[in-house]
Please model this.
Amino acid sequence: MPTVAAMALREVLRRRGVLLLMVLLPLAFYLVRRDQPWQAARFLALGVGWAVSTLALFGATAARPVEQRLRLTGMRTSALVLGRLLAVIGVGAVLAAGYVVVVLVDQDFQREWAIALLLLITVVVAAPVGAMLAALVPRELEGALALLTVVSTQMLADPEGPIAPWLPFWSTRQLGTYAIDGTGTGDLLTGLGHAAVTVLVSLGVAAGLTALRLRVARPLTGALPGAGPARV
Model:
């Protein structure tokens, strides 16, 4: 897993244009609502989530040829998926830390630690969501459009309506309510629980579909001499 993470990190750092856009997207979300601090923080979190999900999506699709070769050398699918996600989360955490400083300098919130938690949890959720979409949709363009649909729906859906809790970044809304509005721990626990479920489901789908795509041929025990390998 560390090998895959290091390879993925090097690939990400080579894409300077992608990194620049990854920084500018949340900044645009933040500045458009800067005059309303409670909205600015929420939009910033969604911008960070969108940027990290996009990075995970494009990284997963670009890594497919390399993954096939690594899988044939005997590397486990779990190491491939988790190693790549570790690199994306690391880059996302740096991005989130930078914006935590921006928000704390520019705004005045009572629960400053909760702002940091909001952005960090958003990064942890966004990476597997992007990996899941990459596993579900084979091409980058379709995957990007699917992610755009998810994030747009998340932004437009009524937070109290029946659709919002089924969307992957609903935890961002709950954690933002706790951090910004100063509500009780119910919103905090609900947000953390939703984030945990989203991560587990996204990881399960991404790992399962990746394992199917990368399954290798192995000879069956007791196969007849001369018989070709069977797929498992």
About this structure: Residues 77-106 form the longest helix (30 residues). Strands lie at 217-218, 230-231.
